Amino acid sequence: MKRLKKISHLLSQFRLEVSNKAMKEDKRIMTIIGREIWLISKQPLFYILIAFLALLVITPIATYLYFVRDLSSKEKIINRNNEGVILLDRNGTPFFSFYDGRTKEIIEYENIPDDIKYAVVSVEDKDFYKHQGFSPTSVIRAVITNLEEQEIKIGGSTITQQLVKNALLTPERNFLRKYQELVLALEIDRRYSKDDILDMYLNTVYFGENAFGIQSASKAYFSKDASDLTLAESALLAAILPAPSAYSPISGNIDRAFQRQEVVLEEMVRQGYISEEEKGEALSEEIIFNPEESDLNIVAPHFALMVKQELIDKYGEQKVAGSGFIVTTTLDLPLQEYAEEAVQNQVARLRGNNASNGAVVVLDPHTGEIITLVGSHNWFNVENGKINMTLRPRQPGSSFKPIIYADAFDRKLITPATVLHDEETTFQGNYTPRNYDRRFRGDVLARFALANSLNVPAVEVMEKVGVPDGLEFSKRLGITTLREPVDYGLSFVLGSGEVPLIEMTSVYGVFAVGGELAERTTILNIKDKNGGEIFETNPSRRRVLGRGVSFQISSILSDNAARQETFGNSLTISRQAAVKTGTTEDYRDALTLGYTPQIVVGVWVGNNDNSPMDSVAGSLGAAPIWRQVIEQYLQGKPVERFVKPLNIDQQEVCRENGQRALDATSSAYMEYFLPGTVPRGICFGSEEGSTPTPSPTNEPTPTNQPEPTNTPKPTSTPQPIEQPLTPTPTDIPVTIPVPTV
Hints:
This protein has 741 residues and is an alpha+beta fold. The chain contains 25 helices and 18 strands. Among the domains are: 2-67; 104-284, Penicillin binding protein transpeptidase fold, CATH 1.10.3810. Helices cover 39% and strands 11% of the residues. The strands form six sheets. The protein has a five-stranded mixed beta sheet, covered by helices on one side. The chain starts with a helix and ends in a 58-residue tail after the last strand. 45% of the residues are buried.
């Protein structure tokens, strides 16, 4: 502004002196004006120069301050750009990823063959061991060589710069990012040895085929560890680095890949890493591509989506997407794969009986950890594979009966030795239930009635309990999907309310561990991308039922002798296990739920659209899967049995009326009672007219010794059955508007 005023003043002088001054003075004034104008015109360039110099000075400082924490260790550098989520099973095996999560298998530097190290250095950074992170001569040499050959034969950036670009910076290309790359490369070279830098580079660089790092690449292309790579294989992997997608010998141009391999070998000879003879041997070696098929994002998709939702609920989706979380889940991957195969095979076998889907939940009742979850028979089936049927509310059929019996035991309305009436009965609301086999057995004890899944005695128990109280008790055990009492009648005990398989499995877990409900979880721990632990699960259980009632239910459901009349040996496995089936009206749902003290397994078979199956009961449709999965889990595990609580009374009772037996005869058996519920009446062991209630298994002594089991591989999928399965007499459906066994 001052200069403009000065010019204005000079111009005004110039006009005044035109008639009074000589031409010499005019020239002087014009010279002054010209100099002032020139000075004004130079100021923007000056400011630009100052700004540029400031950028050159400030950028290194700002870059250093921003990345200083990430430069503090090799692990942090390697994991700096990790985003998304990687899911591991409980043994540390990756099986799923979200939001572009990357799996990297880190291999120790000393286990990386020298051949791959030298191959990479030869073509990616010839002066790697000479420069300090940046090499102007390398840039010039690369430009000249690539122009001469009319293709990218060698790279211009140093290995250190490539490490910075891959592990620390974004892929965008501009002057500022390139300057930051140079600054960080110099700092990394100052901090770390050449071996450390090459180690980080080889464990992070992308080799194509979704393989990050040399170990993943070796498996992706050759199904072997990187430590076993040959010279020929090493040269080939180094050859594809400039353009992994284009040069991949699997999905790219294999001819170009081998042309590049020869270039790599020539460079290795030129730089003295190998001899001409070794080069010739490598070129003559037949390379066999045996890509290791990845199970990533194939196994346990429904379970993975549940984990994802749990993470989003905990942290929010935006944070999860950019987190780089490494999540160790509760999943047992080998058991998951076994269960998926078992479901696929059984659904295929039942296809001729109009059964199209199945689901499995395996739960640790002590911790709530979901060990295995199969949401459908095939995730990739466009018709019914995507819906997670373990979460979809369905009628549980007779598998719901133990809940109402437990309520009746808990309130001391009945005992396992109470006489119930299996006879034609019309209950309130003009409701006349029938048994699955359309037979009546007269007076039966509660143990026999529940073990054989008799409907009429179950409705009698429901009437004693009352629908409102039974519904509240169900909610207490962890069921959340039931409606109001007015929506149900006495058929509630037969499973007319809709409950997800996962919640039914949790309820049976309550019985398994003596009355405590464990909060379900899919996550064991969460680590950030640098390996720091940010979450570890803390199992939570709360008491919802007494130990005594839980033991009574377990005793009945594990009584192989008591259920023999209906189920034979169809539910018997290699050790003591409590189990109950369920079949709904018109065979729309078939369930089997069972447990030992260690584990609980729930299985459902049916159709997503709720259409009827053709005579597929729980014991025929779901039980085979249940037996296979629980036996597979229990292999090599210690035998654990249901242990009678100290406050439970045991008493010999007569089979025909449940009264106390004075003598231990064949017409008496040992029964278990809550305090104050032992029968007062006495019987004398008469065998005439006795109800066929076999003795429950005597209380065993717990053992910690493993009991080996010979669990077969899931049955191979046979040809679908064209004719419907013929139901056994105990599976005959009844045409009444209530669920059947």
